[in-house]
């Protein structure tokens, strides 16, 4: 029997979250199969086959999977249930939507957003916005797991590519239809895998200041992040939100500008290597977790940072 | 069309829980309706106000204290409540099964649920319920329009936003940007006391709610050590360079 990893991709590029989920799957000690369901997604299957620790890639290339609809993806995974003991998906907007359907129809509990594999049936996961880490043991039977990608290293390149097995499409539940999407305009690296993240909060005050923040991020080749308050205020797109109910990041360097440091935000950044905070309130909770803090008014400091980076040759 | 909204009683989002005697200490802690469920109740009530829904039924699974949570939803404008009384830990799969049983008799045209509960952060109940019912789902909704037998949802994804058309009945889970829940006025609070709350149990609904997972341990993560304050932007970047962080 095997561990099945549900690949995250956009039909062209295999997301880094998949390589990290493969590492979690390897820890279960079973052969790993990666399911690439999509349309016109051969390149994604090839990329998955090139990752270390992958035994087989299952490619299901069909218009039914052109868009990541939860119902047909769950139906496909269920139709393959005889192949696998455990199914793992990255805890992305797609993985989180699909996996509970699979678990429910197999009548098994799901273990959400694991951060460690302690034994093949025992996992660590955060609860209460990361205020508590719980160790949970699953019962005998099939496992359904979502994986917090930042908690696992990415699988590297394989010495030789794994075989790719083509599968016919699964059933079409015909319950929902894709009706368009608006991709975020964010330039630069992807937020959850970027080495540097520059994030802004309500303290930026205006959308113009947020533009300046994005410009500074560009100089550092950093991804742009935001607090919920900055997203709610319309300064940043929803997919920039970091925290308990947004994305989790673990960059080398996290720079928080005008973010107070609410629990719901901090749990999304706690694994950053270095945290920098700039805030005009020297009692802001963000300073309790920051490695380097600067108490200053952003209206004054943002242009200074921009000039300083220009002076240091960050174009 | 009736709209059903499951509401969970959780530790208030402003409270930081602690571990005491190898368990999460919930003694004398402020409890509230899960914020995402509040957004779901608000949306359901707005659907009723727009004439798109006939009745809003709220359901809570948990101890008798959940009646308070149901009353809050009734004060926001829901019509009646159902308490599925049970004590002790209850997992999302069991909750989904209980809600499925309630759906079988209530026959809602739409279930509006929160995208996650802020205590266990599982985010499973909505999609599980949709699957058990054989229904469509849309998680993380930021807008919702009902049009006869279908719903048009805009949902927040990791890449931006996505629009879906769902066949009804369906389960839609709410995200933060869907709406801003209303304040409850005193008259509405009074009115809510008159609204009916029915009670049932897992046994009556024929659902086995025995937990399947074993929690072996709960612990507070090691706190991050606080760092230092710098005096200027120049010093900040000097230090980042010296530390190799840039
Ligand atoms: C259900 C739920 C889910 C949530 N999920 C998330 C989540 O995923 N992510 C998240 O981030 N939040 C989340 N929140 C919200 C969270 O509780 C906080 O409200 C939010 O993080 C605050 O954002 P902020 O720090 O930008 O704003 P504020 O808390 O308002 O802080 C603004 C900061 O800017 C500083 N400031 C103001 N002006 C200036 C200036 N000129 N120069 C320098 N500094 C200045 C202030 O001193 C202050 O510290 C959630 C809340 C709920 C209820």
TrEMBL record, chain A:
Keywords in alphabetical order: Electron transport, Transport
The Electron transfer flavoprotein alpha/beta-subunit N-terminal domain, residue ranges: 3-182
Record InterPro entries: DHS-like_NAD/FAD-binding_dom (IPR029035), ETF_a/b_N (IPR014730), ETF_a/FixB (IPR001308), ETF_alpha_N (IPR033947), ETF_asu_C (IPR014731), Rossmann-like_a/b/a_fold (IPR014729)
Gene3D superfamilies hit by this protein: HUPs, TPP-binding domain
Pfam families: ETF, ETF_alpha
SUPFAM superfamilies: Adenine nucleotide alpha hydrolases-like (SSF52402), DHS-like NAD/FAD-binding domain (SSF52467)
Family: Belongs to the ETF alpha-subunit/FixB family.
Protein known as: FAD-binding protein
Species in which this protein is naturally found: Rhizomicrobium electricum
Lineage of the species this protein comes from: Bacteria, Pseudomonadati, Pseudomonadota, Alphaproteobacteria, Micropepsales
TrEMBL record, chain B:
InterPro entries the record matches: ETF_a/b_N, ETF_b, ETF_beta_N, Rossmann-like_a/b/a_fold
Record field: transmembrane: none
Residue ranges of coiled coil: none
Keywords: Electron transport, Transport
CDD domains: ETF_beta (cd01714)
Domain Electron transfer flavoprotein alpha/beta-subunit N-terminal intervals: 21-209
Family classification: Belongs to the ETF beta-subunit/FixA family.
Designated name of the protein: Electron transfer flavoprotein subunit beta
Species in which this protein is naturally found: Rhizomicrobium electricum
């Amino acid at each position: 029997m095997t561990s099945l990893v549900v690949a995250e991709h956009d039909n062209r590029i295999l997301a880094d979250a998949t390589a990290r989920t493969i590492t979690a799957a390897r820890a279960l000690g079973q052969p790993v199969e990666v399911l690439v369901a999509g349309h016109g997604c051969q390149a994604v299957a090839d990329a998955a086959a090139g990752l270390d620790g992958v035994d087989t890639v299952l490619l299901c290339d069909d218009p039914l999977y052109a868009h990541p609809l939860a119902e047909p993806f769950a139906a496909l995974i269920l139709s393959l249930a005889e192949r696998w003991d455990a199914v793992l998906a990255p805890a992305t907007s797609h993985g989180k939507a699909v996996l509970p359907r699979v678990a429910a129809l197999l009548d098994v509990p799901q273990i959400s957003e694991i951060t460690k594999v302690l034994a093949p049936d025992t996992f660590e996961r955060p609860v209460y916005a990361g205020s508590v880490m719980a160790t949970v043991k699953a019962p005998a039977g099939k496992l359904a797991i979502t994986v917090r990608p930042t908690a696992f290293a990415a699988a590297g390149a394989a010495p030789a590519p794994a075989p790719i097995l083509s599968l016919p499409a699964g059933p079409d539940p015909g319950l929902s239809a894709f009706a368009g999407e608006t991709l975020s305009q964010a330039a630069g690296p992807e937020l959850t895998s970027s080495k540097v993240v520059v994030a802004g909060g309500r303290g930026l005050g205006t959308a113009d200041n947020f533009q300046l923040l994005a410009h500074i991020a560009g100089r550092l080749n950093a991804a742009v992040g935001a607090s919920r308050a900055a997203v709610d205020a319309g300064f940043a797109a929803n997919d920039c939100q970091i925290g308990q109910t947004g994305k989790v990041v673990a960059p080398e360097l996290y720079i928080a500008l005008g973010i107070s440091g609410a629990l719901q935000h901090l749990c999304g950044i706690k694994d950053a290597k270095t945290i920098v905070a700039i805030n005009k309130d020297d009692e802001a909770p963000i300073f309790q977790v920051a490695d380097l803090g600067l108490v200053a008014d952003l209206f004054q400091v943002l242009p200074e940072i921009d000039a300083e980076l220009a002076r240091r040759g960050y174009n | 069309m009736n709209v059903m909204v499951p509401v969970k009683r959780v530790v208030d989002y402003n409270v930081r829980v602690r571990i005491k005697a190898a368990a999460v200490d919930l003694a004398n802690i402020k409890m509230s309706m899960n914020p995402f469920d509040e957004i779901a109740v608000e949306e359901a009530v707005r659907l009723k106000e727009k004439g798109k829904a006939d009745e809003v039924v709220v359901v809570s699974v948990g101890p008798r204290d959940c009646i308070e949570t149901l009353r809050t939803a009734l004060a926001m404008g829901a019509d009646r409540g159902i308490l599925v009384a049970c004590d002790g830990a209850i997992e999302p799969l069991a909750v989904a099964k209980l809600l499925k049983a309630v759906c079988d008799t209530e026959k809602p045209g739409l279930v509006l649920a929160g995208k996650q509960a802020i205590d266990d952060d599982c985010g499973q109940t909505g999609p599980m319920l949709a699957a058990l019912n054989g229904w469509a789902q849309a998680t993380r909704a930021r807008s919702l329009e009902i049009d006869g037998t279908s719903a048009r949802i805009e949902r927040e994804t990791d890449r931006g936003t996505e629009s879906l058309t769902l066949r009804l009945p369906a389960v839609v889970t709410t995200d933060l940007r869907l709406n801003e829940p209303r304040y409850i006025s005193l008259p509405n609070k009074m009115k809510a006391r008159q609204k009916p709350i029915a009670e049932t149990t897992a046994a009556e609904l024929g659902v086995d709610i025995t937990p399947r997972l074993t929690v072996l341990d709960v612990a507070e993560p090691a706190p991050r050590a606080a760092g230092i304050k710098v005096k200027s932007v120049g010093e900040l970047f000097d230090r980042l360079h010296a530390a190799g962080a840039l």
